[in-house]
Design brief:
Blueprint: E1 2-6, E2 15-19, E3 29-38, H1 41-47, E4 64-72, E5 84-88, E6 97-101, E7 105-107, H2 121-134, E8 142-146, H3 151-162, E9 166-171, H4 174-183, E10 187-190, H5 196-203, E11 209-214, H6 218-226, E12 228-236, H7 249-254, E13 258-261, H8 269-282, H9 284-288, E14 296-301, H10 305-314, E15 320-324
Parallel strand pairs: 8-9, 8-11, 9-10, 11-12, 12-13, 14-15
Antiparallel strand pairs: 1-2, 3-4, 3-6, 3-15, 4-5, 5-7
Helix pairs in contact: 2-3, 2-8
Length: 325
């Protein structure tokens, strides 16, 4: 089969399409013939040598895909050859075929194309597990999303609105802000033109927000705390602009602030399977009702993975980027 390999840690140019040994299906797994694979910032980190796959898993990048089941391993009863699925992967999605633990496989939501469904598993599992399972975001609360134009951001805007929340988001251009508002965000802030702290406090009458979803990291940590309401919660999903910050713990204690962080890839297979079931139960209905839609503006053939990574790292994209074998 063909797969995108990382020749050595480095820039996008180290990605290369090669003929490699075909993926094999193991016990408790399914083999998927890939129709589309989605790019994630974690793939870029892996390419640079900073985000290795779990032990024993594929060395090729790619954390989510959609496709058709090509083979079923022993012990698997929920899936059969020919089923159209999307999957949360430990790696290996940038290929013509990939194996996935059966518990991390999901049906294609009704009304969504097989291709576009590739962009759902990682963002759906990430957003649901962080905002709702961990931080218990609830109807009537206000959510601030740092990076509304990202794959995570575009999904979080729609899901939070579907669950009855007010959404404020930041983005780097007026065009992205406008697109975020069209997706459902109540307020959009161009962080290159406005102080998001001042604007957020103005829009909340000085009360602040209940929950923040942040992909920026260290530079925003203290500023994020300035806009949190009493009992506010922050989930740090990324370290896009840095990973070291000095924190004044006084406001944390005074306002009972919670700071949480994790990565989906580092979780156990059992934990991921549990999250997947929660997503199918709580998120898939919102997709099938049309309240949450795929946001895919860019697709590239598998041999253009270099171009996809360059676009992702430029931050000029909006929503998800897909690779098509």
């Amino acid at each position: 089969m063909k797969a995108v390999v990382i020749r050595a840690p480095g820039g996008p140019e180290v990605l290369e399409l090669r003929v490699v040994e075909e993926a094999k299906v193991g016990e408790g797994e399914v083999l998927i013939k890939v129709v589309a694979a989605a790019l994630n910032k974690a793939d870029c980190k892996q390419r640079k040598g900073n985000n290795p796959p779990p032990h024993g898993r594929s060395l090729y990048p790619g954390l989510e895909c959609s496709g058709i089941i090509d083979a079923v391993g022993s012990g698997v009863s929920d899936w059969k050859v020919g089923d159209e699925v999307c999957a949360l992967l430990p790696g290996g999605g940038y290929a013509e075929k990939v194996s996935a633990p059966a518990g991390q496989v999901m049906p294609i939501p009704k009304g969504v194309s097989l291709r576009d469904a590739a962009g759902f598993p990682e963002v759906a599992c990430t957003v649901w597990s962080t905002l709702f399972m961990t931080l218990h975001l609830s109807a009537g609360e206000t959510l601030l999303i740092q990076g509304g134009g990202s794959g995570i951001g575009t999904f979080a805007i729609q899901l939070a609105k579907a669950k009855g929340c007010k959404v404020i988001c930041t983005a780097g251009t007026d065009e992205k802000v406008e697109k975020c508002i069209k997706l459902g965000a109540d307020i959009g802030i161009n962080h290159n033109e406005e102080d998001f702290v001042q604007r957020t406090l103005e829009e909340t009458n000085g009360d602040g927000v209940n929950v923040i979803l942040d992909i920026v990291g260290a530079p925003y940590l203290n500023r994020n705390m300035e806009v949190l309401a009493m009992d506010g919660r922050i989930f740090i999903l990324g370290m896009q602009d840095g990973f070291r910050a000095e924190v004044n713990i006084a406001p944390l204690m005074k306002r009972n602030i919670t700071i949480a962080s994790s990565t989906l890839r580092a979780r156990t297979v059992e934990n991921k399977a549990s999250i997947v079931q929660e997503v199918i139960k709580n998120v898939w209905p919102e997709i099938e009702s049309g309240k949450v839609k795929p946001v895919v503006e860019n697709t590239f053939p598998l041999d253009k993975a270099v171009v996809g990574h360059r676009l992702m790292e430029s931050n000029r994209h909006f929503g998800k980027i897909l690779l098509l074998p």
